[in-house]
Design goal:
With 137 residues, the protein is mainly beta. The protein is built from one helix and nine strands; from the N terminus they run αβββββββββ. A hairpin with a 2-residue loop joins strand 1 and strand 2. The radius of gyration is 24 Å and the shape is globular.
Length: 137
């Protein structure tokens, strides 16, 4: 005869370490990558207010869309940075603007011609500190 308690399936308890490992894995897996340094980085949404913050090694937001004749103001909120037009730090002759390096203050640029204006921080270029301003008619 089988003992009544032996027929109950065993319940195994998961240790806190296993739960922590699974949670960490799920958080990392949900982050995703950003293969396009000038892409929106998954941010998107909301209305652009004309101001981009520089802090750490990021522009926030890094991408913006405006109309021709409007201005963008970059505001230094931490660290020393530049705001440099272009895609290559070794080609200064292609720059429409190049502000900095500095660690405080702001820089405003008015975009009069429709197009796409990539920009970056010369000091943090290798850390992917890049963005794009799209100017529409």
């Amino acid at each position: 005869m089988i003992h009544p308690l032996r027929s109950i399936p065993r319940v195994r308890f998961v240790t806190p370490a296993v739960l922590a490992a699974v949670s960490l894995f799920l958080m990392i897996a949900s982050c995703g990558g950003d293969d396009d340094p000038y892409g929106d980085g998954g941010g998107g949404g909301g209305t652009f207010n004309g101001t981009i913050s520089l802090s750490g090694s990021t522009f926030s937001p890094k991408n913006a869309t405006i109309n021709a004749g409007e201005s963008v103001t970059w505001v230094w909120n931490g660290g020393t940075h530049t705001v440099t037009h272009g895609t290559d730090p070794n080609l200064p002759e292609t720059r429409e603007f190049d502000e900095g390096p500095k660690s405080s203050g702001s820089f405003t640029y008015t975009f009069n011609t429709p197009g796409t204006y990539p920009y970056f921080c010369r000091l943090h270029y290798d850390m992917n500190m890049k963005g794009t301003i799209t100017v529409e008619q």
